[in-house]
Design brief:
Radius of gyration: 19 Å
Distance between the termini: 51 Å
CATH class: Mainly Beta
Number of domains: 1
Helix content: 10-25%
Low-confidence stretches: 1-17, 110-123
CATH topology: Immunoglobulin-like
Largest sheet: 5 strands, antiparallel
Structural class: mainly beta
Length: 123
């Protein structure tokens, strides 16, 4: 009887608390007057696949990941964009800088009512 309850609890917690992490990075602009926005591209498990955008025009340097699978390697990339006014052309110019393609691997499923808040930092 106890074993059946234990397995039900494991299944219940996996369904209600999917595995996610908070992707975070460092960014900014030497010109403090410029507003930097970030776009996060998610490549999933294939670094050569067409990425999906999981965060667009973010003003923060973090973004939650999609649901993750245990024992899997994932790839993601951040592109920073800022705009500034060019007085010569009298137009706004958008400058973008792509970060390198980052990756991380997941471990096994963590069972419990609260999942850890993990951070991936890349300098």
């Amino acid at each position: 009887m106890i074993r059946k309850i234990f397995y039900l609890i494991i299944l219940f917690s996996c369904v209600l608390y999917p595995q996610r992490i908070l992707l975070s990075w460092e960014g900014g602009d030497p010109d403090s007057a410029d507003v930097v926005k970030y776009t996060v591209y998610w490549f999933g498990t294939d670094s050569t696949s067409m990425p999906i955008i999981i965060g667009n025009d973010l003003l923060t340097t973090h973004c939650p990941s999609p649901v993750l699978i245990p024992f899997t390697k994932y790839y993601w990339q951040v592109v920073a964009t800022d705009s500034h006014y060019n007085p010569v052309t009298k137009q706004y110019e958008h400058l973008s800088t792509a970060g390198k393609l980052w990756n991380f691997s997941t471990g096994g499923i963590i069972i419990g009512l609260e999942q850890p808040n993990l951070h991936i930092h890349k300098k």
